[in-house]
Amino acid sequence: MTEGTAEITQELVDRLADASSLAVFTGSGISAESGIPTYRGNIALWAGFRAEDLSSVEAFERDPEQVWQWYEARRRQIAEARPNPGHAAIATLERALGRFRLVTQNIDGLHQRAGSVDPIELHGSIWRARCTREHIIVDLSECPLASLPPVCGRCGAILRPDVVWFGEPLPHGPFEAAQDAAAFCGAMLVVGTSAQVMPAASLPLVAKQNGAFVVEVNTEPTAISALVDATIVGPAGGVLPELADRVVERAASGGAPR
Ligand code: BV8
């Protein structure tokens, strides 16, 4: 663990570039510079409610329309937002490095809009919904929605967001794939997460326990800063472009940078 901020040293670049595979694990902080509030930001205070108050089965069963109003407000905000240089830098790493996996806690789809292909979405997507009767998953990219709550086109039942709510298990396939990515990567880059929500937040520890070199990028130290090999304190959109460029250059040269 480094005290304060670590610099983007050549050694750090080499460790990331030379790793057998690179896993990237992101949280809401990577979307902050796109104007999307983090969970600890004002999103938690939407209409006086905290995220945990509305991201639950109980809240949805109690008042589905209120929960959908919250999600629709977020959808409209995300639809207006654009991926930032942090998202783009991760897509650059994915294209340049053969063995790469992106795992995100985010439901905003900004990684895909930045060019990342098939990220593991541990907590689902705000752009999909699930029928509460048939449990089929449907695309819900239409925004704004004509009416709330949206209903299933096949059976007329209310749809729910295809996201993981507090108290719900993570989808088995994605979580298993994420655990494999963490357990078998040679290096992990952890970006923009307070690492407080389990079981997703266990992934950096899984990587570390399996011998990976783990670097964190965050605007402040977090619950895992004592665990990782280096914490670069700074905004993802400011730190990741330089880091990605230098890692790509090292990987392309296969040795010391030109
Ligand atoms: C489960 C989708 C078990 C929905 C999300 C009591 C009751 C019930 C459950 C629990 C409980 N106590 C503990 C739990 C477990 C709970 C949990 O961990 N709670 C926490 C609050 C203690 N977990 C669960 O409930 C999980 N399920 O445990 O199921 C089970 C098992 C089997 C069978 C049945 C049940 C499910 C958790 C998933 C919840 N869904 N999202 C939606 O979004 O509407 S969680 C949501 O919050 C995110 O997805 C993310 O995971 C989490 C927030 O984390 P972050 O992304 O880190 O965001 P945060 O704001 O915290 O931090 C932002 C960071 O960015 C900060 O560090 C900041 O410094 C940094 N930053 C800011 N700007 C920048 C930046 N960094 C870089 N650049 C910048 N510019």
Q: How is this structure best described in words?
A:
This protein is of the alpha/beta class. It has two domains: 10-35 and 83-123 and 169-252, Rossmann fold; 42-80 and 129-163, SIR2/SIRT2 'Small Domain' (2-Layer Sandwich). Helices cover 35% and strands 17% of the residues. The strands form two sheets. It has a six-stranded parallel β-sheet, sandwiched between helices. It has a three-stranded antiparallel β-sheet with strand order 5-4-6, with helices on one face. Strand 7 (187-191), helix 8 and strand 8 form a beta-alpha-beta unit. Helix 1 (10-18) packs across helix 9 (236-253), helix 5 runs parallel beside helix 9 (236-253) and helix 7 (172-184) runs parallel beside helix 8 (203-209). It is elongated. The two termini are 29 Å apart. The relative contact order is 0.21. The model has no long low-confidence stretch (mean pLDDT 94). It binds ligand BV8. Ligand BV8 is lined by residues 27-29, 32-33, 38-40, 55, 105, 107, 123, 163-164, 166-169, 192-194, 196-198, 200, 217-220, 222, 235-236.
Average pLDDT, all residues: 94
In angstroms, what separates the terminal alpha carbons? 29 Å
Oligomer: single chain
| The CATH superfamily title of the largest domain | TPP-binding domain
Helix count?
A: 9
SSE succession: HEHHHHEHEEEEHEHEEH
Shape: elongated
Strand arrangement within the widest β-sheet reads 3-2-1-7-8-9
- Radius of gyration over alpha carbons? 19 Å
- In the CATH hierarchy, the architecture of the largest domain is 3-Layer(aba) Sandwich
Beta-strand fraction estimate: 15-25%
